[in-house]
TrEMBL record:
This is Uncharacterized protein YtcA. It comes from Caballeronia ptereochthonis. Keywords: Cell membrane, Lipoprotein, Membrane, Palmitate, Signal, Transmembrane, Transmembrane helix. It is a multi-pass membrane protein. Belongs to the YtcA family. It is found in: Membrane.
Length: 94
């Protein structure tokens, strides 16, 4: 019987150690105060990513190179994600 308890306690200790490592990145929530209300940083990054994607699309359309965005159902969300993450890296280095 004691062997079962030892195994359970080792397993529980392993799970607790793994959980503490995984949640260590959740120390604080980065946010920006806008008129007294706090908004998360990622919200601004997504808005900037969408705006930059629209600007990129308009520039490519004007240059007659919009065929580079051919499977738009895949390219547009990927571009929004790429630009949102780029804005996050440039503006919000904590």
């Amino acid at each position: 019987m004691p062997l079962v308890r030892v195994e359970c306690s080792k397993r529980a200790a392993g799970v607790a150690a793994l959980a503490s490592i995984l949640v260590s990145g959740c120390a604080y929530a980065p946010s920006i105060s806008v008129l007294g209300a706090y908004f998360p940083d990622w919200l601004f990054c997504i808005v900037a990513g969408v705006a930059l994607t629209v600007i990129l699309y308009l520039v490519l359309s004007r240059l007659k190179a919009s065929n580079l965005l051919w499977p738009s159902a895949l390219v547009v969300p990927a571009t929004v994600t790429l630009l949102s993450l780029a804005v996050w890296l440039v503006l919000f280095q904590h």
